[in-house]
Task: inverse folding
């Protein structure tokens, strides 16, 4: 059995920088200006394999000091497509994030609405009242992209706002919080937001495989060198990019929803952002393959998600 899918997009991906980018640390300082985003994009393009048509869609990191004119520059750049909200101190490398969303950042939010620049929100870090204000009339038709896994209680019902879409990560569809502790502490399954209960995982699976056009793929793949994970204060993040399509196929197959997989992986995301769908195809074969135990590079090792395990769907092209 084979699946031929329109080439998917990944709407939440950490590529890192320097040696770790070349292999697959975090990029510092945060990308808060259009000029920095353009420079970072160039560093990504330089390490792509020959013949790759990968197109990184860049985002800016919202801060209290951002100037509204930066949003105009971002829109005119043709390479910056959204702004990401990280409240200060909420997650890895968020110390430069927002402390006063509707005070210091209000002019930027208003300019984003004028420029139709999407705001990418992690709902682990914003209360529901502030979300209602973000999606309210004062910001017109501003688009908001939120991370499904952080609002599990809300996904029991349909998302009705056409300007709000949700991306989801396959690690929260396949792992629950027991995955952090079975057989001892498992640092390579540690991520933020932290893995949820099994009942929450099942709720997310139901929502994602429902066929709703408001859910789409975003892996949040976040590689860290092995020693930075296996230490007394390990980094949050799972390197799941190598197994993402295999796991999404597994999830949709088990839900009896393989016919809805392509829309989730390849159509709903670009449709939300007003971008063209890809035209090339990828093939998934119903063929077992073993995930590598580790990926070794000159500077160390990276342990992928499901290392050493056997998966049933194999990306062939």
Result:
């Amino acid at each position: 059995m084979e699946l031929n899918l329109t080439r998917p997009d990944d709407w939440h991906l950490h590529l890192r920088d320097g040696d770790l980018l070349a292999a697959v640390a975090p990029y510092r300082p945060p990308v808060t200006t259009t000029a920095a985003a353009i420079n970072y994009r160039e560093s990504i393009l330089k390490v792509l394999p020959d013949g790759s048509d990968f197109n990184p869609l860049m985002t800016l990191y919202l801060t209290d000091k951002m100037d509204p004119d930066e949003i105009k520059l971002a829109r005119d750049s043709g390479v910056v497509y959204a702004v990401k909200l990280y409240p200060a101190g909420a997650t890895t490398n968020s110390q430069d994030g927002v402390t006063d969303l509707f005070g210091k950042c209000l002019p930027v939010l208003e300019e984003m609405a004028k420029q139709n620049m999407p705001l990418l929100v992690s709902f682990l870090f914003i209360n529901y009242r502030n979300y209602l204000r973000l999606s309210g009339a004062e910001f017109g038709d501003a688009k908001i992209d939120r991370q499904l896994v952080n609002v599990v209680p809300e996904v029991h019902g349909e998302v009705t706002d056409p300007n709000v879409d949700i991306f989801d990560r396959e690690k929260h569809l396949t792992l629950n919080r027991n995955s952090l502790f079975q057989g001892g502490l498992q640092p390579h399954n540690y991520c933020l937001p932290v893995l949820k209960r099994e009942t929450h995982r099942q709720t997310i699976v139901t929502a994602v495989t429902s066929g709703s056009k408001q859910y789409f793929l975003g892996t949040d793949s976040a590689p860290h060198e092995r020693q930075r994970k296996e230490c007394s204060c390990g980094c949050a993040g799972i390197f799941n990019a190598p197994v993402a399509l295999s796991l999404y196929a597994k999830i949709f197959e088990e839900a009896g929803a393989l016919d809805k997989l392509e829309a989730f992986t390849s159509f709903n995301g670009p449709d939300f952002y007003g971008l063209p769908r890809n035209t090339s195809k990828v093939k998934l074969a119903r063929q077992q393959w073993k995930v590598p135990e580790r990926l070794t590079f000159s500077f160390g090792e990276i342990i992928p998600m499901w290392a050493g395990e056997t998966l049933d769907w194999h990306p062939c092209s």
User: Anything to note?
Assistant: The chain has ten helices and eleven strands. The radius of gyration is 19 Å. Confidence is low (pLDDT under 50) at residues 148-165.
